[in-house]
Amino acid sequence: MTTNTLFGAPLGFTPTGLQEWVDSLTSCWRAYAGQGPQSLLGDLNTLKTIYAHGASAAKLRTTFAELPDDALQMDLPSEVALSADGRQLITPEGRILLDVLLRLRRTEDHVIGPDEQVRALALAASTRSSWYEAWAMKQVAGSLSPAPIAAAILVLVNGSTTPDRGFYLPDVDAQATEYQEAVLRLLGDFSSTLGGKRPTPAPLQSHWVFTQATRVLSRDLARLNDTGSGSGSRVYVRPEREEHLLHDLTARLDRYPALMVARGLRALVEGYHQHRGLIAVVSGSYERAANTRMVLASLTHGGM
Description:
The chain is mainly alpha-helical. It is built from 12 helices and 7 strands. The chain has 2 domains: about 5-140, no CATH class; about 145-300, no CATH class. Helix content is about 55%, strand content about 10%. Helix 1 (about 15-35) crosses helix 4 and helix 6 (about 145-155) packs antiparallel against helix 9.
């Protein structure tokens, strides 16, 4: 890109030249989207699946293969369209340029002014940057299936907010078999309601559900060896991180239907109350009704 172009297009046009660029970019967009240009930001968002960082190479190849053979109208520069096998796939910069040229045509202007250039370049940069940031944050935050989410909620409901009140995860211990089965049943009831898998039987100390929960949510959940029993470990919410953990879990649950989340939470809490005596004996139960109501209200945006 040079200073006298914008995404490979000249800054000044003849009326015929402007129309040719508009027609070519519009044809290129239609070949991809199956319709004419709509809102700029909405159209850019549809390109995210093939141009964002971490996008599937297979998705890009499939998109190219599905373009009509007559998608090539003029030899557009690579900044605005990727070319392969006689087909051209519009880029985010190409869609932004089309918006700029459509405004020129509406105002019967034929020169892309400095302010318009700056706006277009800034939008292209911020679009690519936001896509990368979203991908990077996803890698840092990690993903959690319903069962580990349920494990974190269980720690909150149990009132395990200090090391001495940590939720107990026994190692191989025959005496804790009933307790482990009850805990996994609670997590399974929540997970299956949200369409996830039920955790298979295994010692809680090494179970993937709690391992994944404490790894992905390590800023909010801590884990330490249980000195009282001599084996196993305890999970608790780090000091002053309860609100952040609730916010994180709420955001993760927002991708599920609200009614489904409410049913899952109800199953988890009712199961906890059913087994509270057992939990109190083996782990210690520190639940407070007011705190449980607050947790449920936060996770459902007050919908329960």
